[in-house]
Write a structure and sequence with these properties.
Strand 1 and strand 2 form a beta hairpin. It is built from nine helices and three strands. The longest helix has 23 residues, at about 20-45. The model is unreliable at about 210-215 (pLDDT under 50). With about 220 residues, it is mainly alpha-helical. It has two domains: about 20-90, Fe,Mn superoxide dismutase (SOD) domain (Helix Hairpins); about 100-205, 3-Layer(bab) Sandwich (minor pseudopilin epsh fold). The radius of gyration is 17 Å and the shape is globular. Strands 2-1-3 form a three-stranded antiparallel β-sheet. Helix 1 (about 20-45) packs antiparallel against helix 3 and helix 4 packs across helix 5. The structure holds manganese (II) ion (MN). Manganese (II) ion (MN) binds next to helix 1.
């Protein structure tokens, strides 16, 4: 079974005007689909065919140092995963900050909801070149990290909770070079804190995690 492009969880125009329908059409239909198509072509007739995206990413990451083919597979597989996670990290009428247990943790680790928003926007804006800005859980602590190009925290022992794509294709049609405006608008209006809270709960409670796994 080839890797399938996951369905966009909302309409193309649902995130406008923060992220326009034109941007979403290009970003999802062209960029995300291209990573999936390239990945399926690269793994066909290899031992990574018919593996899950997660397995392909981890195995390709482990081979990257010695195998140029693994570099291309990793890049396309990780970009496929990162984009699916990005669509989940956004929602129409999002933002508004975390609630419940995650809100208490954001306040403990970043001082306040505003402190998190400012630190996240600064990290995303100052990241040099193409990449991603993440809120992750690492050994019980919340952290803001950035990755370059196709880099993904799932190969670094970190559990992603939210991500914002800072490749230019994510914002150039709407904001041109103004990445800081794009990130600040996304943080304030689109971040899907319910999605982050669900992932946080699964990652921080072993009983919930095992209950959620298929038998
Ligand atoms: Mn992208």
């Amino acid at each position: 079974m080839p890797i399938v492009l996951p369905k966009l969880p909302y309409d193309y125009d649902a995130l406008a005007p923060i992220v326009s329908g034109a941007t979403l059409r290009f970003h999802y239909d062209r960029h995300h689909r291209a990573y999936i198509d390239a990945l399926n072509a690269l793994v066909r007739h290899t031992d990574l065919a018919d593996r899950t995206l997660d397995v392909i990413i981890h195995r390709a990451a482990g081979r990257r140092a010695n195998d140029p083919a693994a570099v291309a597979i990793f890049n396309n597989a990780a970009q496929a995963w990162n984009h699916a996670f990005y669509w989940q990290s956004l929602r129409p009428k999002g933002g508004g900050g975390p609630r419940g247990v995650l809100a208490a943790r954001i306040e403990a680790d970043f001082g306040s909801e505003r402190g998190f928003a400012d630190a996240f926007t600064a990290a995303a804006t100052s990241h040099f070149g193409s990449g991603w800005a993440w809120l992750v859980l690492e050994r019980g602590a919340l952290r803001i990290v950035t990755t370059s190009n196709a880099g993904t925290p799932i190969v670094n022992g970190q559990t992603p909770l939210l991500v914002v794509d800072v490749w230019e294709h994510a914002y150039y049609l709407d904001y041109q070079q103004r990445r800081a405006d794009y990130v600040a608008n996304v943080v304030d209006n689109l971040l899907n804190w319910d999605f982050a809270a669900q992932t946080f709960a699964r990652a921080s409670e072993p009983s919930v995690q095992s209950a959620a796994l298929p038998a």
